[in-house]
Each structure stands twice: as C-alpha cells, then as structure tokens.
Amino acid sequence: MKNPILILNVSGRAILFLFLFLLSLAACSPWSSETNKALKMAGDNRAELEKVLNYYHKENPNPQKLKAAEFLISNMVYKYSLFGPGVDSLNMSYEYVYGVYRGQRNHVFLSDSIARKRNAHTDAEFDLKRVTSSFLINQIELAFETYNRHEWSRLYPFEVFCEYILPYKIGHSDTVCWRSYAYNKYGELLDYSAFIGADSHFEAEMHCLIESLKVKVEGASENYTRRISNDDLLMFNMDFDVRTDGSQLFKLYYVNGHTTAANIRIMIDSIFIGDFVFPSTGSWQRVENEVPPVEFTAQLDSGTHTLKMISLDKDILLDYVTIPDYIYMKFPESVISEGKYFFSNSFGRLTIAADSLINENSINIAPNPSKEWPIRIVAKDDNLYQLLFEASGVTKAIDAFPFGESEWLITYNDHGFQNQQWAFIPMENGGYQIRNKETGRVLAFSETDSILIQLPAEMMRDDYIWHIEKVAGSGDKTIDISVRAAQKISEITNRFHWSGSYAGFGPVSPIKILDYTYGSCVEQTAFQTMVLRSMGVACATDFVFNYPERDAGHSWSVIFDLDGNTVQNNCHNPVGAGTWVDAFAKGKVYRETYSINRNSLFVINNGEERIPDQFRNPYFKDVTAEYCDVVDVEVDIHYDVQDGNKFGYLMVFNNRGWVVTTWGERTRNNKVKFKDLEPRGMYLPAFFVNGRFEAFHEPFYFDSLGMINHIQTSKDEVQDMILRRKFPNRLVDESYHQLIVGGQFQGANIPDFSDANTIGIITQDMTEPIFHTIDNEPSSTFKYLRYIGPDGGHCNINAIVFYDGNGEPIEGEIIGTDGSLNNSGRTKHMAFDGDVLTYFDAPEPSGGWVGLELSEAKSVSKIRFATRNDGNMVEVGDEYELFYWFNREWASMGRRIADSNELVYESVPMGSLYWLRNHTKGWEERIFTLDTNNHQTWW
C-alpha cells in the first residue's frame, strides 16, 4: 500500500506545476483572460473564433477591430440561438399574419391553427459553439463601416460603440446579417425627404378607360377606386413625369377586403420592380385610414415613365398613388442648430413688418433693414423645423396655406402641423432652399407686394436661396447630431405597427421583422435597434418585468447622445419626449446589454441557489435611477421560511397574481436589502423556495412622506363593503366623462320630437364610469324616446335602457342621427347593444341624438345608462369573488352573483389588501385598499 501522504505531496506538486504551466500559457496568450475563458468554452468551435482574433492580430492588424473582436467573443459566453423546424414555422406564421387586417394580427397569431404550426421541435445552441469566423469578421467590418460612415457615430466613445452599435445579436434569433440588410433597405431614407406637391397625387380611377373597373368606396379619395386584377388585358398603366434623375419614392393607397394579403407585381417601363404584399384592409366597403400605403423606391431618369401593376392572385382596389418630390437632403449638412437667425438672400436681409405678427395675416417685408427681425428656428422630427417670430410675449409661426395652389403665407399660432414645418435643403454653392413639408413649395417673396410667399419648386431660382446667420448670444443649446440622426430615423421606425399586448412572438428572424414591421414591444424594439445601429446611432432596449400598478411589463428603445445621456426613443413619439412611460410607476427599470453584467444576480449567485428564470441572465443592468427617484429599502424577515436563502425578491401584482420585479441580498441582521427601488406601488417581499415564491413579510407601500407602510389585516375589526368596480378607469380619459353632463332624455309622440317632454337630465354626479339610474314618475306615455347629447359631446352615451311602468326593459326600432365621427363605426345602434365597451359617437359635436320608436306608447319609470368606460364596473348577472390578504396568502369572502350594479360584502376584515375577481368574464382586475369612507385606492 502506497503512502497516502506521499501521494498527496506528489499530487500537490503536480497541481502546482500545472497551475504554473497554464499561467505561463496565459502570459504568452495575446488575448485577455475573459477571451481565453470564452475560447476554452467554445469547444470544437474554438478554431473559428481564433481565426477572427488572428485575422485582426496578424493577417490584417488593426488594434481597434481586435479589441472589438475580443469584446464580442469574451461576452458571448452565455448567448445562444434558437433554430430548427419550430422557428421555421414561427417565421412562416409571422410572414402570413402580416397579410391579415392590422386589427386582427394579434388574434390570428394566437389562434390554435397558427399555434399548432409553431409547436414543432426547436433546437438551441450557444453562439460560442455556432458562429463562424466569416460571419463574425463580416459583422465587425460592417459595424466599422457604419462607425466611419456617419459623423455622429465617430463621435461616440469606443466603449459606447462596442456596447450599443457593434453587437451582432438580436434576442435569441439565429445569427443572420441583419445590419447590411437594414441599411440597404432603409439607409437611403436618412438622406432623403419626401415633399407632396399638387402634382404628386394620381387618382387611380382617372387612369382607367373601362368603367366596370371603377369602384365606388366610402372614404376613397374622390370617392372612386380602380380594380387591379390578374388579367393581363386589364393591367393598370399610369404615366407620370420625374423632374430630376435619382431615387423616386412611390406610395400606393389601396383597399383589400380579403381576409389575407394580395400579391401585386409592380413594373416601371416594363422593368420588374418587385412583387409586393398588400395586407388586408379589413373591408371592401370603406377605406381604412389606419392602414399605411405600400411604399417602394426606384432609380429613375428624368422624363416620362409608366407605372404598371397586376395582381398575382387576388384583386385589390387601388385608390390613388403619390409620387412626391424625393429630395436629397445631404444629412447632416441639412441639420440646423436651434436658435435665432437673421435670414438673407441676394436682395439683402429679411426684415419683417411688426404688423405681420399682430394681425396673423400676410408676412410683410419692411423696407428698413435697420429694424431686422430675427426668426427662431425650432427643430422637429424628420429633420424639419418651425420658423417662429417672437415679440412682447407673443409667438407666431410661418404658416403655409395648405389648400389648392395658394402662394399665401401667414403668421399663425404655433400648432406644429406639417404646414408649419420646413426643410433646409443645402444648395451646391451655399445657402438653403427652404421648403414646406405639407405643400412642397419653397419659401420665396414677392417684390411687387413686398410679402413672403410660397412657390412651386419648379419656380425655384437663385433669388430664393436663403442664407442664415445665427444671432450672437441667442443662448440656444448646440445641436447633438446623434439625436438629430435619431429624429430623422424615427420617420422609418414609426412605420412599425404595434399589433397587440402579446409579449413577444418568439425568435422571429431579424430579416422578417425588417420586412414586415409589426408585433409586440419586443419586435418593435428589435426593429428600432437594427435600423438605428445600422445607421450608426447608439441605442439599447430598456424594460420593466412588470409595472407595479399594471398588468404587464414593457420594453422601449433608448438612444445615447454624445455626452452619454439616455434619451427616450419610443416609437410614434418625438425622440426625447416624455411619454406615458414616465407617468407609470415602474418599480424597476433595466437595460439590455451585450456585455456580461458582473453585478447581476446570475453572476453573484454563481449557481449556488435556485433563482427565478428572469434573473438567470447576465445581459441586463439596473437603470432605475435614470428614470425616477430611488431609495434603498431593508425589509425584516417577518415569517419563518426555509433557512439558507441568500437572496430575497420583491413582487408586484399583474392582475392575476404576484410576479417578481427585483432582487435583494440578505443582511446579517435578518433583513433583505433592496437597492434603487422606486417608492411607488405595492410590493410583496418573498423568498424563492423550491421553485415557488414564499412571502416573508406583508405587502408594503410608500406613503406621501416616503415611509414604508405594511398591510396590517385586522380580523377583529371589520367593515361592510359596497363595491362598484374591479379595476380603475384607465381606458377612458376623465374628460370624456364630462361629455354627457347636461344631456337629456326625452319622450314624445311626434317623430320630430316637437312635443318632447324631458324625463331625465344627466348631472355632474353621474359621470363616474359605472351604471347610473334616473327615476321618473310614469305619468305620461310616449311613442318615441331619445337621448340628446349636450353641445360638444358628440352624443357619447352607452348602454341605454328605458324601463316601462312595470319595470320591464322597453324595446323598439333604433332611431337617431346617422353615421359616426370619422366613420369609426360607432353608430347609434351601439347605444342600445348592451355592450358596455361600445358607445355612440355622433359625426358632429352638437345636435346628435339616439332613441327608440316604440310599437305602442308606453310610460317610462326609470332610465339606466353609462358614460364611456372600460367595462370594469359591476354588472348584473356576473359572478364575483372578493379576496383579502391574510397570513401570506389570499383569503376568500365568498362568491356572489351580482343582482344590481353594486356588490355588498359584510364583515370584511379591515386594513387589508383586497382583490375583486369576476369569474364570468374579463381579465382586468387590480388590488386595492379601502378607507373608512368606502373609497378604493388602486394598486
């Protein structure tokens, strides 16, 4: 038998030798320790990754690109891709669903038939073991092309470039070259702007000699459309002129009443342009204004051309085509720093007469340049600007009259619409052509009348080239070119269609997202990330797991200015503008990163204890302090739980139960410390034990002084509760509730209500979003009953029920004002359909009414109605259950079927947290506390 001590000594020397040997190897390696770790984990794919490193180290030496390669590889450790039949089916489904009507996309995507197709097998593999050297080198080269192409990109610190422009990865989708695809598809739009002029609009039916192909459609431009079929003999042909050589933009407005997309082949001068998908517009009966046009660009010479269209499968109706002037803007040369400027041209400085500001009329040019009047330039999105006059506290904008072929310019109140937005187009020899966004006309002046005017672009001459000189000391901040680039790019990213609240479709191919641009906030931020990074704007995705006072989480895009500040970049909102994200309680805000967050729970835990899935990811960091005031909170461990948990969690309520939002570390004094928490919302402290959460203290909230208050349920003190709602009224702005105040219910026996009697008036105390009842003495009988709205209320009314003298609902033929505001479909019938979510919205603000014609005259004993609302009031016949929080769980007060518009629960423990559930329908339910006056505070 061998001496074990000897063996131990030998083993110790061997281990020491091995350690020194590995240390020497590491010392000889040109790569960082983190890169070496990643290479070791790459297994058989190590050689591919080393090819990338050696390429920039030896073959094509470039220290900066080598540093970028190490950044990508060393932080690739936990990144993985999903692929296989399941993902292939997902991508086919995503493409198919794009073709259905926008309002149905989320519903169709979640349908059983689509879901079954996505249930095929899906594979997963770490990127370290999957990416090829050619792919990674290509991604680095493309990222550096972007870095060097754009002025703003070069101004970012290299670390910002690496984190927020360089990464190749989009979610867990497979590795594809989205960067070049995004730039090739959208990059041109960064430098071009479209201007619609009088000669940019082409009515499709005017290019049709066959009357049977002209189809009348409600809401169509000039009332008619032109049918596009798959018959070669009926191909659509339209001649048009192009003034200058170069890229030309086309927008095709159409109607497709099929349930799925039509495929249309487009040619110009018989040259194939492409086969385009025209999604369903939902109806053949009317034009759906929310459906965007199909767009494409083509390189054309000046002169006359012919647009040709033919269907490859289904017919569509073409409403009209716009071919705007598509102007090269030379971004960023066309960017103007905000501030006050003097304007001049070949005749001298522009001097405006003072009465122009006062009278909101023509802009007179004064003859005395000693009284020159500076113009303030204010930036808008899409590289456009407002031109403002300011004096004595009054601000007026240069406003282009947008109708017909008017030359008229006036000063008008600053409303910011497109006829007040101007582009500065750099001219070859200096100066700018200043062009209006809506009219497409250029800023000029009349020497005869001494006024500013707007003229067609083809009348542009050197006299109308404007030079600007910034007023010294005007005090405006210098422009951040990266933010202006993002504002211009927002014209592209705002094309995204948010199709519903479904939280991500899965690993959809980035190429598909770039092509079809719809989905949830997950796909939206992926789209923004790809477009922005392909054009050199540093950006990231910020998110919350779940809002403390709402049903779900959210993600949104942010960009970074050149000073490193975070700028919100929400789709369909101005870049940098505060939005609804600011208004919500957030609890915790996180930012996705490419680099591994060494302070993440995933890294700190290092596999020692089981943690929730949300935190098994090192690729995000806490940025709550960038959005709101934060506090550190220590919570006592109040209940006995399993020993040994190092980490605790805070949970928030998501309409169906508690969900995790953040984590904290256990301290030595039997507390859990949570850092940087927003002091808003209701939080439940819990440990994660055996795969489930167990509360270790009662839920808590912050009072107005920022102090923590724990829920303290009292079994000894009880109260009776009267409940009318299960959810706060968030869907409908409170201002809409006021639209019924002063409305009258009337009865009559003559159809025109010339003999009307008032049987009820809506007063201020009837605006709460619940059912209201007006009692009436049934002394008279009426053949006709109606509600007539107050002035300005669009006759908004909901769920009207008239009751006869026996208390039975009265039925009759619905009469009243026809139509609806903006052809929304909210017609008079919706006032009586029994659906609390619908309402009548009359086409005109005043004079609208809705009622019933009865088969015989009847008396009216009462009237029930509701204002516009979200449908979360207590409804007769629905089954409800009230819960209260007690001893670490929900306790039930029993189920009730509502027999009125109020639920009454007796002897409910006071001081608790409550939850009213509707077991019949709906999903919007919020927890609440209740004061002694029976007032609900929602959490």
TrEMBL record:
Gene3D superfamilies: 2.80.10.50, Galactose-binding domain-like
PANTHER family hit by this protein: CARBOHYDRATE-BINDING DOMAIN-CONTAINING PROTEIN (PTHR35532:SF5), SIMILAR TO POLYHYDROXYALKANOATE DEPOLYMERASE (PTHR35532)
Protein name: Ricin B lectin domain-containing protein
Species of origin: Alkalitalea saponilacus
